[in-house]
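User: These chains co-purify. Model them together.
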Amino acid sequence: MNTHLDGNVLAGALRELFTVDITTAIGQCVACGTTGAMGQAIVYADAPGLIARCPACDEVVLRLVRSSDRAWLDLRGVSYLQLELPA
Amino acid sequence: MARAAVLGRLTWQVATVAAVREETATARTIVLDLPGWPGHQAGQHVDVRLTAPDGYSAQRSYSIASPPGGAPGGAAGAATLELTVQRLADGEVSPYLADVLEPGDPLELRGPIGGWFVWNPTSGGPVLLVAGGSGVVPLMAMIRTRAVSGSHAPFRLVYSVREPGTALYAGELADLATADAGLDVTYVYTRTTPPGWPTPAGRISAGILTAGQAARPDLAVFVCGPTGFVETAADLLVDAGYQPSAIKTERFGPSGGQQ
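Assistant: Joint model of the two components:
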């Protein structure tokens, strides 16, 4: 059974941390070099946190765990994020 | 298409239920008054949080059904927002929203959220929308936005439902499609068809999705539904020669995801 979601579900949790929308950000996967919008990531939300995987190679690109008063963000799976900013 | 904006910190706010509207036997639309709502784009969602007296809280994402600027027919600039909630039998949040919540009740939410799965009138068309079950909700926001903005972008909705009575917005979709040659609505019935339906019940197919036509290079595709449905539909389109980069998907599931 398919239980994964996609990068759209990252939007709210990461908007708690950042003032830009993460789903339109372009990320590059460290493992395979594929670039794409974070909204296209495969996301597993049934772990204790959010796990985002590269849609091309399935490697973990982002992990986010939140407790009541802090968050842990692991971005070692992306070599960069390209974020849209107002001109 | 993605308008860059520095956004304020995303905070929880309290909306007031202005009305509830039954859509099907298991789904209803909640109309919310939301002073200070910054506006939204079609396809965006909100996070809803319920908190029990003992402090336990549960949070889910729900797609916004209404177009920016309030519901059709609402006062211009009214800060209203509509969510359509499908009750899940074993759900933790949806039964409360679908059965218990009444006009006048407060509801805690934050948004608008998400800039990837959105359509704006400036995005243009043609657009193919593919909905599985309650995945039609954000796509309906796009259809309503197109209607209220006067956009003439060609829209085609392929809407997969189990049986006729489970289709959301059936009357409104029929009215919109009748009034506007630029909007086509095609139903796929997976379990039971209406009487006299020309084809037997069955799953979505490449022929239905593409209507036998090759993809136009400027076509934008939005697919929303349960994970299995979304993957099937996207795979069928890619196999039919549609560009993967033109296909945006939104999956929902029972645990914490879009509902």
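The CA atoms of residues 42 and 119 of chain B lie 6 Å apart.
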